[in-house]
Input
Amino acid sequence: DAMVIQNPRYQVTQFGKPVTLSCSQTLNHNVMYWYQQKSSQAPKLLFHYYDKDFNNEADTPDNFQSRRPNTSFCFLDIRSPGLGDAAMYLCATSRGSGGAFFGQGTRLTVV
Amino acid sequence: AQTVTQSQPEMSVQEAETVTLSCTYDTSESDYYLFWYKQPPSRQMILVIRQEAYKQQNATENRFSVNFQKAAKSFSLKISDSQLGDAAMYFCAYRTGNQFYFGTGTSLTVIP
Output
């Protein structure tokens, strides 16, 4: 089945230690997104790729970076995680004017 | 800036009854799309229904339907014949270009 897959589902990292979250898709969608979702809050768009074009939201901290080496994969790098970065990170894809398809998310814990 | 407001943090409904979840949005765009997403506990976000702003006809997907009032910038979701599996967080979302913006969600409880 075509889908969006995020790895790992749960990630524990140390304060200040770089961490990378990954997302892959078999939908062949040209747009990929990263959202941060904290408990009981709306998903917050961090950035998205339209094909290879990177689009950063104005209020996304510099601590967050992303890479998209090809259509299928997208990575979220957190250079120096702080306690406030603990959250669920959602990857999503879209194509055309349709809705976004989401992965199951990666729950990040910072210790 | 586009904003999406869901004024009901929590709602409950008896099984087999009907419930309506509210959503309003603010935009100066004329071409956009609206969505309702369902997020069960610890599970992924699932698209429930989609509405194009240029269409006057309200979208329907089985037991789910919307009441889209463009002038009022209102986009409510009606769930008919509620089932236990409908219990989840529901998010209203607005799309302009390639960007999706979400409301803060409504937690729906279905009472057996």
About this structure: Chain A has a mean pLDDT of 94. The CA atoms of residues 2 and 26 of chain A lie 5 Å apart. The interface with chain B takes residues 31, 33, 40-43, 45, 48, 50, 55, 90, 92, 94, 97-105 of chain A (CB under 8 Å). DSSP finds no helices and eleven strands in chain A.
